[in-house]
Model the fold of this input.
Amino acid sequence: AQELRLLAQADGVYGFDHAVLFFFPNDVEKEEDPRRLSFYGHLIPGEAGKYLFSRSRFYYFLETRTRRLLERFGVRDSYEEYLRSLYREGSPELAAHRELLGEFLRKVGGRVTVAIVPVLHDLDDYPFSTAHDYVKGLARASGVEVIDLLDAFQGMAASDLVVNPYDYHFNEKAHVIVAAHLRGALAKRGLQ
Done:
């Protein structure tokens, strides 16, 4: 929702010839979803925990390690389970997102390419293909091209592409791979 608002504002103020909209499977979340916020309040709940999580590297470190330990011991759902739940039939998050993204894509049409960013969790048995299929279907129905960045990581181990076992964000190697793949895919479409 934030990306779409920003892109719409930028188009209104500056205009653009073509934009790349990156989609990550958690983009279906509502901005203030209490379930999402529960991932950041194990040590200090509520707004204080959310504030520290976003502003203190030490707290972020402690919080993410605590969450992963709780997941490994089965005390709480994993982030993977949470993300997959967003795409289940009847999900209110999915219904709201479908309406929001669908309307946006119909408005901008061929001036946007959607790049789907994979969760670098398990690339051998990728658990989020439903999210990728959802975006591809919605984009194609609106005449928008899609670049699935999962293709860039075929044959690679997720553990070589993430910051560390507790943090699935892309490391430098993954960013370089995505940049090269994206540049090539856009060039094939005549975009530089």
The chain is about 50% helix and 10% strand. The mean pLDDT is 86. Residues 76 and 141 are 37 Å apart (CA to CA). The helical segments are 2-13, 34-37, 46-55, 57-72, 79-85, 92-108, 129-141, 172-188.
